[in-house]
Write a structure and sequence with these properties.
With about 280 residues, the protein is of the alpha/beta class. The protein has twelve helices and eight strands.
Length: about 280
């Protein structure tokens, strides 16, 4: 099953567009995990099990693991998700961007070492820097387009000679030229719903990974109205910190599940409202 097949199946079987981000910050872990050598894995495992009924996939952010020297715990986590929740895709959030020979190694890391179903990449260095990921035809390649941070406008809003903003040029390139295997998706932040709508018009039903709801303040209703497809899918709406750290008390896993369930319900409600 390709990444796109797996994602489509998860959208339907889970009735969810919620992607749960896994950004482990040991300073915010519950007290019961203090001092454990496997605290990162155990925290993320509990979150995964608690939120899996409400999610269309999981997005571990590699920097949070690498900064702690916890790559082996990330490897164990990816194995755990594949074994216990095999229907839910793993998106490795790495935002890699380097020349072709180095990109080949990053692609091997994402797809062969961690067994991710998809990886986020940076298109700034052009097609040849993305090609090693595209060569894994059954895997997803999720390309930065209009990011959720304010500083993204420094470059992404710059206009080409024909007046097209750079982020829409990226969307056009990916949709028309790079997506030969039908494996691509784009990152567009929930903090910019008008840009989401413009990208959606350019790329038809291509999946969008949409960070920025929850702790970053993106509006769910505006996001859904801008990014949904005619089939009421097409989005991986990511929430990380708001779910992971819903509570630091003894009920932390239950609180994460409650927040994930509420977020999924809010997305469903927004879809229903968009169809009225």
């Amino acid at each position: 099953m390709t990444f796109i097949d797996k994602l489509n199946h998860a959208w339907t079987s889970q009735d969810s567009l919620l992607m749960v981000g896994l950004d482990p910050d040991v300073g915010r872990f519950p007290a019961e995990l203090a001092g454990r050598a496997d605290a990162v894995f155990e925290f993320c495992r509990r979150i995964v099990d608690a939120t899996a009924p409400y999610a269309c996939g999981f997005k571990p952010q590699i920097a949070y693991f690498a900064a702690l020297g916890a790559e082996d715990q990330l490897l164990d986590l990816c194995r755990y998700i594949r074994a216990q929740h095999p229907a839910l895709p793993i998106v490795l959030d790495a935002k890699r961007g380097d020349i072709g020979s180095t990109a080949q190694q990053y692609a091997r890391e994402a797809f062969e070492r961690y067994g991710a179903d998809a990886v986020t990449v940076n298109p700034y260095m052009g097609r040849d820097s993305v090609q090693p990921y595209l060569d894994y035809g059954d895997k997803g390649v999720i390309i930065l387009c209009r990011t959720s941070n304010v500083g993204g406008a420094d470059l992404q809003d710059m206009r080409l000679a024909n007046g097209t903003p750079l982020y829409l040029h990226v969307a056009d390139q990916v949709a028309r030229v790079w997506n030969t295997n039908g494996q691509c998706a784009l990152v567009v932040g929930a903090t910019y719903p008008e840009e989401i709508a413009q990208v959606r018009r350019r790329v038809a039903d291509m999946p969008l990974l949409i960070p920025g709801i929850g702790a970053q303040g993106g509006d769910i209703v505006a996001t859904v109205q801008a990014g949904r497809t005619a089939a009421n899918t097409g989005m991986m709406i990511n929430s990380s910190r708001a779910i992971l750290y819903a509570s630091q008390g003894d009920n932390w896993a239950e609180a994460a599940a409650k927040t994930a369930r509420a977020t999924r319900s809010a997305i469903r409600h927004a879809l229903s409202a968009s169809n009225d």
